[in-house]
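Reproducibility note. Readers wishing to regenerate the assembly model reported in the main text can use the exact inputs given here. Chain order matters: entities are listed in the order in which they were concatenated for prediction.
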Amino acid sequence: MQNVLSILFCLSLFYLSVTSRVKAYVTILRFQGLLLTVLLVFPFIHHFSIFALILPATLFIVKVIVIPRYINKIILDLDIKRVIEPTIQPFTFLLLVIFSMVVVFVASNILSKSADIETIPFASGFTAIVVGIFVIIFRKKLIIHVAGFLVLENGIFLFGTAVASELPMMIELGTLLDIFVVVFLMGIAINKISSTLAGFDVTVLGRLKD
Amino acid sequence: MFEFSILIFIPLLSAVVCYFITNIRLQFSVTLFVSALHLIFSLMIFIGWYQPELPFYFSTDSLSKLFLPVLSNVYFWVVLVSFSYLKKQTTANSEEGKKYYFLLLNFYLFANTAAILSNHFGMYWVAVEGTTLSVAPLIYYYRNEEALEAMWKYLFLVSIGIAFAFIGILFLTLSANGTLLEGKQLFFPEFVKHASELNPVWLKASFIFIFVGLSTKIGIAPMHSADVDATSNSPSPIAALMSGSLRVTALLGVMRIFQIVQPTSTYQFAKTILIIGGLLSLFVAFVFMFKVNNYKRMLAYSSIEHLGIITLGIGIGGLAFVGAMYHVIYNSLNKIVLFFTAGNIHRKYKTREVEGVSSVLNILPWSGWLIMISFLSISAIPPFGIFFSELMIFEGILFSNKPWILAVTMFLLLFIFINMGKTLFQMLYKKNEGEIILIKKERFEIIHFATIVLLMLLIAIAVISPNILHDNIVNISKDFGIKL
Amino acid sequence: MDLLFYALTIQIFSIIAIAILQDNRKASIAAHLLLITGLILGFAVSFSTLVFSNLSSQSFSAFGIPNELFRFDALGLFFLCIVQLVAIPTTIYSYSYLKHYLDEGKSIRSNLVFYAILLISTQMVVIANHAVLFLVCWEMMSTSAYLGMVFEKEKREVQKGAFYYLVISHVVVFLLYIFFFLLHHQTNSWLFSDFHISPESGNLFIALYILSLIAFGMKAGFMPFHFWLPRAHPIAPTVFSAFLSGIIIKSGIYGILRTFQFLNPTPEWLGWLVLVVSMISAIFGVWYALAQHDIKKLLAYHSVENIGIIGIGIGIGFIGSAYQSIPIQMLGFGGALLHTLNHAIFKSLLFIGSGVIYKNLGTRNIELMGGIVHRGKYFVMLFLIGSIAISGIPPFNGFISEFIIYNGFFTTAKELKNYYPLLMLISAVGLAFVGGLAVACFTKINSIMFLGSERKEVKHFHVSIYEYLSLGIFALLCVVIGFYPQPFIGIVNKVLNHGFVPGNSASELLKINWFFISLIFMTVLSGVLLFYFWKSIVQKKYGSRVSAAWGCGYGGLTPRMQYTASSYADELNEISQTVLVYHKKMKVPEGVFPIEGAFESHSDDLVDSKILLPIFRNISSLICRINFLSYTDIRYYIAFILIIISIYSLIAFLWN
Amino acid sequence: MELISLLKGIISLLVILILSPLFVGLVNKLKAIFTGRIGAPLLQPYYDLKRLFRKETINSTNSSFISVVSPVINLVTVVVAAAMLPIGFARPIISFEGDIILFAYMLGLARFFQILAAMDIGSSFEGMGAAREATFAVFAEPIFFFTIGSIAFINGLTSIYDIYHSIRLDNVSYLVFIIVCSISVFFLAITECSRMPVDDPNTHLELTMIHEVMILDNSGIDLFLYQYSSYLKLFIYAILETSFFYPFGVRSYTVGVVIFVVVITILSIALSISETITSRFKMKNIPQYLLFATAIGILNLLIYTFTK
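Running the prediction on these inputs yields the following C-alpha cells for the assembly.
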C-alpha cells in the first residue's frame, strides 16, 4: 500500500516536471498532501485512536487546504502569468528527473542492504527532494520556487515515514508549523517584492554583489 | 521548572506582551528586563551555582553551558543599544519595522534558548527554524529593496538548508536501526552513549547532510552567500546578533553530531570535512576581501573567516579545539563591537560604500578609534582575546598531523588582514580634497559605552582567564574525547 | 627589582594623566614629567643592577609577580638600559615636538598615549621571560608604534608607509608564533630560561635558526628584509622615527642574541651566512643612503648599514662559538653589543636633529637646504658630532665599537689559521669600504644641509632649549663613550660573562689597550685646541679678513651655483646603478636662447619596487579575476548546496 | 731602556716633521731635471711655507667655524698618524695592538674635515674637488687593507711596528708577496697624496684638480697648515713604502736610518720618473685605476695564501 502511494507520488513528480502551468503546481501540491495524509492515516485502520489522528488532521489542513489556497490567493492577487518560465526545455528537465530518479533508486537499493528500509518510499521521497531542488534551480518565478520548496518538504516527509522512525508528535507538529510559517513569510515577501521591485522572478533580485 | 520558565517562557511571554503594548519605550524596558534576567540566569548556570533541572527535551551540559551565556550576553547588549538605535535610525518606512522589532527579538531569544538547551535533535531542529523565522523579518527592518532581497535569500536558502539538516537527522535515525537505539527518541545523550554501535554508512551521510544544511546558517563556504547578504543589509544590532549568536547556535548542531561521530570510525572523515569547510571559508573570505567595497559586507566576510577558523580548529582537534572554543566567545564579543561601530558610521554617512566614507577619525573620533581598536583586536593583536585563542589554534594545527594547513591559514589570514586594513584605514584616514575637517566632539552615547565595556571584557577574559571558563572548556573537550 | 616595576607604574600613570586632564597642555606636561621620572628611576635601577649586583641568579622575584614571568638577566638588563637611556632624551624632545603641534591647535593626546604605551611595552619586551608575554609585548610595541606613526594621517604616503610597517610586523609575529611553538614543543615549557636546544636535534635546530633570523632579521632590517625601514621612517613623527630606528629595530638584534642563548653552539656556516648577509646590508645600506635626498629616508638606510655592522659582529661571534673559541666570541658579540648601544645613541641624535630641521625648514629634501650653520651654530656642532660618530671615525663612540669588530677579525684570523686570514681580511676590507662610503655620505649631508649659503630662504631657525637638551645628552654620550670607553667595555664584558659566552676567563675585550687609545684621543683634542690658539694668535699678527669665494673671476655667485647633493654622490651611484635602481632625468638647455634646463636623480629600493610590489599586484589581479563565487542569483546558491553535498558524498564513498 | 726607545720614537717623529717638505722638494727637483728644466731649489717647500705663514688669512663669505678648525684638525691628525710610523726600527711613540686601524681612521678624520672645509666655501669648484676626494677615498681604503693589512692578517700582528718588524726574507713567495705589496702601496700613495696620474699637484685648471682645488680658497696660515699636512701625508706614505725595503734581519738603528735615507731617495726618483712619463687620467677612469691596484693586492694575497 505504502509502495503504491509512493509510486503515485513519483508520477506526480513526472507531471510536475513536464507541466508548464502555475496552477498545475498547486494541484500537485494538494495531491501530494493528500497522499501523505493517507499514508499517515493508513496504519490507524487497525488500531484506531482519536489522539493519533491529530497529526494527519493537521497535515491535511496545512498541506491540502491552507497552503494551496494561500498560494492560489497570491497568484490571483499578483495575477502572475499562468505559464512558468523554464530556463531549460521541459524535455531535458524530464530527462534529468528520470536520470536522477534512476540513480536514486539504484543507490537506495544498494544502501538498503546495510539498513532495512522500504526502498520504494525511501527512493521516491529522495527523488522528490532532488526534483524540488531542480525545480528551484531551473525555474524563474519565485512562487514556483516556493512550490519547489514544498515539494522538497513533502519528499522529506515521505522519506521520514519510510525510515520508520516515529518522531514525537509534538515535534512533527512543530515541523508543520515551521513550514507553514515559512511559506507564509515567503508569501508576504513575494507580495513585497512584486510591489517594490515590480516583478516576481529571481531576475529582479540582483542587487547584492561585491 | 523555575529556571526553565525564566529562560524560555518569559521571553515568549514578553513577546506576547510586546505584541499588545504599542509604546516602544515600554516594549524596550520589558525586553531589557527580560534580557538582564536571562543574562543573570545563564551566568549563574554557567558558574554552576545551581544545576537547573529542565523538563523533557531539554537539559544542560558543558557545551550548552558555554553557549548560553554567549547568546544572552550578545542579546543583552543588542537590546541595550536597540532603543537609541531605533530612535535615530528612522528611514521613511521603517515604522512598522519598529512595531515588531522587540517582539521578534523576544521570540528570537525564546527560539535560540530552546535550541541551545534542547537535547533532542527534533526539538533542536524546530527551534533553529524558529530562529530563522524570527530573524528574517528583522533583516527586513529598513523596508528597502536591498533589505527585501537579503531577507528573501536568507529565508529561502536557510529554509532549504534546514530541510537538508532534517534529512540528516532522519539518516541519523536510520543509522540507529538494528541497535539499542532503534525506535528510541533522538536524544543526544543516548546517541553519544551508544555511538559506537551506529551504522557508519548512514552516520557519514547524516553528518554530511547536517553539516551542509547548517552551514547555510553558520556561513561555511560555499553556502555563505545568503548569510553575507543578510548580515550586511540588516540593522547593525541585528547583524551583531546574527554573527554573534545565531551562527554559534547553528554551530552547536554541527558540534552535537560531531560529538556523536567522535567515537566511531567516521571520526576521521568528519574531521576532514570540517577542515575542508573551514579552509574553504577562509579562502572565500580571502578572495572577497580583495574586491569588497562595502564595509558592512567586509565585516560579514570577516565573520565568515572567523567561523571558518573555529570550524578548522574543531576539525583539527587537540589544542586547536580548545582554542576554537575560546574563539567562539571572543569572536562573538568582538563582532558586536565591530558591528555597533560600523552602525555609527553608517548612521553618520548614510552609505555602506567605502568610497562614501572619509576621515572618520576626525568626524567621529569615538567611533573611529573604537573601530580601529576593534579591528586590531579582530586581527589577533594582543592584549585582546582573539590573539590568545588564535595562538592556541595555530599551535594545535602546527602539531596536528597536517602542519601544512598552518602555512595556508597564515597566508590567507595575512592577506585578509592586509585588505581589510587597507579598506578600513582608507575610511578612517582618507581626506577628500577641499573638505574642511572641523574637530568637533562626537557625543558619547550608550553605544560607545557598550563597545568600550565589551573591549574591556575582551581583554579581561583573556588576561584573567577565569578558571570556571577554562574548566568548562576542558570538560567540553573531554566530552569530545580530546586528551590534553 | 620592585623599584623597576614602580618605575613602570609611574609611566603607566602618565596615560591616566592624559586621560583625566582636560587641558591639552597640562596633560602633555604631566605625562612627560611622569614618563621622564619613571624612565630615570627605571634607568637608575636597571643600570645599578647591571653594574653593581653580581648577576649570578638568573631571575629576581618582583613583588607579586611570579618569577617566571619576568627575568632580569644580563642581556635583558643591558637592552633595558639602552631603551631607557635613549628614551629619556627622546621624551624630553617629544615635549617640545608636541608643543609645536599644540600651538597649531592639533590634538596630541592619542599620539602621547601611544608613545607611552610604546615605551612601556618596549621595556617589557626585553625583560619578558614567558614566551607568550614576550609575544604580547612585542605586538603591543609594533602596534603602538604604528598608531603613533599615523600622526599626520591625512597624508597619503603616511598612510601607505605606516600600513606597510604594520603588515611587516604582522608577518614577523606569524613567524615568531611558529618559532616559539617549536621551542615550546621541544622543551615543553614557555619560559626563556628553560629554552635550550643542542645542535644534536638536527633539522629542528636549523629550522629554528632560520625562522628566528628571518623574523628578527625582518624586524631589525637586514637586507633583503630592509624594505620597510625607508618607507616607515620618513613618514613617522620624529619622536617615533627616532625611537623606531634607535630602539625598535634593536629588538630584532635582541631576539637574535636570545636565540643564540637558546641554541648554541652554532654551526659555522650559519656564522658565515650572518656575516655575508650583514656585509651586504652594510655596504648596500650605506650606498642606498648615498643616493637619497630625503634626510629621514637617508638616515633609515643608514640604520640598515649599522644593523649590518652589528650583524657582522654577531656573525663573528657565531663563528667563534662554532669553534668554541672564547676570544672570538667575546670580540664579536662585544662589538655587536657596544655598537647596538652606540647606534641607538647617535641615530636618535641624528633623527632628532633632522626633526628639528624639518620643523624649521618644512622640508626633508636636503637639496633645498643649506647655510644652516649661520643660523644655529651649536645645533650644527651637535649634529656633526653624531655624523662623525656614525661614520665610525675617531674620537667618538662609533669608532670604538668598529675597532672591537676589527679586532674580532684579527683574532679570528689569528685563532683559526689556514684560509681564515684571507676571508677575515676581505671582511675587514668590506668594513673599511663601508666606512669610506659612510664618510662620503655624511660629508655630503652635512655640507649640503649646513654649509655654503642658503639654497632656499630660511625664514627662521629656532632650536628650543628642550631640543638642545636632548641633542646635548646624546652628543655627550657619544663623546664620553668615545673618549673614555673603559666602563662601557666593562659593562659589555660583564653582560657577555653572564650566561652568554659560557665559561669565560680572561676577557679579550679588556686586553685591548683602551687607556692608550683614550690617551691618544686626548692628545688629539688638546693638540687641536693648542694649535687653534696658536693659529688665532698668528692670525692676529698677520691679519685676516672675509671676502667672496673665487669663481674664475665671475663675481655673481648665487646659491644655486653651489654643488648639489646629487652631483656630489653621482659618481659613486653611477658605479652601482643597477642595484640602486638609480635613474636620472635631464633636460638640457638648447637653442640660441636656451630655456631653463632641469636635472633630477632618483633611486628606488630594489626589493621593494622590483620584487614585492609586483608580486602583490599580480596576486590581487589574479584574485580579482576569480568570480565563480560572486553570483547574485539565489539559484546558484542552491546549486552549490547540491554540488557540495555530492562532493562530500563522493569523498565519503571513496573514504579508505 | 723604555726611555731610550721613547726617545728614539720622538726623534723619528721629529725627523718626519722636519724632512717632509724636503722630500717634496726633492721630488719636484728631480722631476724638473728629468724634464730638462733647472727647477725650483731643493728647499722651495720650506720657502713656500714661510711665505704662507706670513700671509694674511682670507676666508670666504660663506665660511663657518668648519673652515676655521679644519686646517688645525687636519694637521694634528696627520701628525698623530705620523707618530705611529717606525723609522729605522725605532718603536714609534704610538704603537699598540690595532694601531693600524687607528692609523687609517685618523687619516679618515683628516679627510672628513678637509672635505667639509672645502664644501664650506660654497663654491662649486671646491664641491667638485670634495666629491672626487670622497669618491676616490672610498676605493683607496681597500688598497691600504689589502697591502699592509694583509701582512697584518697573515702574521696575526695588528701594530704597524710589529708588522714591519715581522718582515723576513726566509722564503721566496713571501718576498714576492712583500714586493708586490710595496707596489700597490705605491699606487695608494699616489692616490692619497694626489700625485700624477691621479691628480696633478701643479696644474691650475680648477676643473681637473682634486686636492689643490679643495684648498683653492684658502690662504695664509690655513693654507700653510694644509700644505704642511699634505707634505706630511706624502712623506708618511713614502715611509710606509720604504719600510718594506729594510734589509731584512738588520736590527741596528743607525743602519736602518742610513738605508732609510737611501730608499727614500730611490723612491723619490721613482716617483718623479713616474710623474714625468705618465699623464693624468680622465676623472672617470680613476676608479678603474684604483680597482686595478686593489686587484693586484687581492691576486697577490690569493697567490700567497694558496702557494704555502
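We highlight two features of this model. The radius of gyration of chain D is 19 Å. Chains D and A do not touch (no CB pair under 8 Å).
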